[in-house]
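Researcher: Let's try something more involved. This one mixes different molecule types, so please make sure each is placed in the same coordinate frame as the others.
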Amino acid sequence: MSALNELTLAEARDGLKARSFSARELTQAHVDAIAEARALNAYLVETPERALAMADASDARLAAGEGGPLEGLPLGIKDLFCTEGVATTAASRILEGFTPHYESRVSENLWRDGAVMLGKLNLDEFAMGSSNETSAYGDVISPWRRNGSDAAIVPGGSSGGSAAAVAARLCLGATATDTGGSIRQPAAFTGTVGIKPTYGRCSRWGIVAFASSLDQAGPIARTVRDSAILLGSMAGHDPRDTTSVDIAVPDFEAAVSRGVKGLTIGIPREYRVEGMPAEIQALWDRGAEWLKAAGATIREISLPHTKLALPAYYIVAPAEASSNLARYDGVRYGLRVPGKDIVSMYENTRAAGFGREVKRRIMIGTYVLSAGYYDAYYVRAQKIRTLIKRDFETAYAEGVDAILTPATPSAAFGIGEKASADPVEMYLNDVFTVTVNMAGLPGIAMPAGLDAQGLPLGLQLIGRPFDEETLFAAGQVIEEAAGVLARPKVWWA
Amino acid sequence: MSVDAQTVRRIAHLARIAVSEEEVAPLQGELNAILAFVEQLGAVDVTGVEPMTSVTPMRMKRREDAITEGDRAADIVANAPETEDGYFLVPKVVE
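Model: All components are placed in one shared frame. Result:
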């Protein structure tokens, strides 16, 4: 038998049920793998004692014939989720020393179902970034490298620690969050599966807020099935989040093997962007052929306002961030830097505590919400958001069941390669994913191939509101058609 | 639209972020790059389009006006940099 951390989450679950190994053994394998992989900087906090204690409790429940759907399965938690008694930083200096006295609803749901916590995963500061290079606690290094090169590659962001840890077998699955692509883009960059569910599917309670009308939690895992199992536990109504939707959580795992026979898959022509690498176009075409071969009808569609999504996002998201991050004032938690009066204390604290990208976004948000600019920027962006959503509604009303697009405009790039003075260059990474957040829809990214340099490439499927099941079904078809892809060679241990 | 150095200082103050003189020019460049990127939105005809207020069609939920949680003062101040007797301490505000 291969090492226990090599198993998929579904295989590990079945192995535990069959008592082929214990939760303690499974957890220990992960704890050891994490200790050997510190070069990746994926974990900000490791909680091995807690993990082993939780595993022992799981073993006791399994021995008694009890146990929840995730009993004994070790997971990583993005450090944007508050975890009771375990430091939570959002990868920011301003939250240094913050230890929540409460648990986020999503992570609470995972523990309710028996999962084991391995630790907290690195991310871009306050989830603002597309390469995990904005963390105050250092870059996450992807386990992937280009063929014949030892140059460090980014894992994507903001859920870069989650994606790197899953790809490097440092957990069976991880929680993540997605405001403009932060689950799907790192999943694509690391050859993993990530789903951002419909807005309202998961509770945002206890997740450090970035842009409240866009933020959603979701899992990153190694297979479509594993992501379906995890989302089934993470999702659900929560009276403490008024935007969480009070509808039943379907059996996502059952949807995985449903197939795509009879479904209509839309191919939006506006995603054929200028300068798209031929490899990405070929991958996209291949994905459509796979779905067609499995019985789906492929139809070209138009989403005319696509190119406006990213600029509108860079008004809406910073505006909401400037409001949400006003709470970091040196009074209630985290860092305080003294000043000559209370205002200079605020200013000094926020100057020292926030990194460059976060400051930039707070300032853009402050500007577009300030007197005289609110209508020209913010209200206009929200109107354009209505138009973006309408594009999708039209496509779905005309019989499209899901939409296939590339997940990212390129494969992962090297650390520091996009450190130019123009922040927009980095923002363009999210050009295919951000529309989904603007319209509140579900989107899944799954690996579909490798580029000429040996780095993973992903495809994205976008669904109707609250129809994650079709995404799991179609995602499974793509996963199977793509076959077993290469995996990162272990260079870090 | 683009911002000048004075506007950068004003925004920083509104955002309560101390900005040194050396930081103003780079910030001005970065903010203007973002503003130039979003400029294209100005060309879109949005006549008669409602601004989005909720991404999913839902009515704001209401709950009974009753105390459901509380009496957690010690938890609430536990992470504060300075506290006294269950209160947050701030620098003197009123002379």
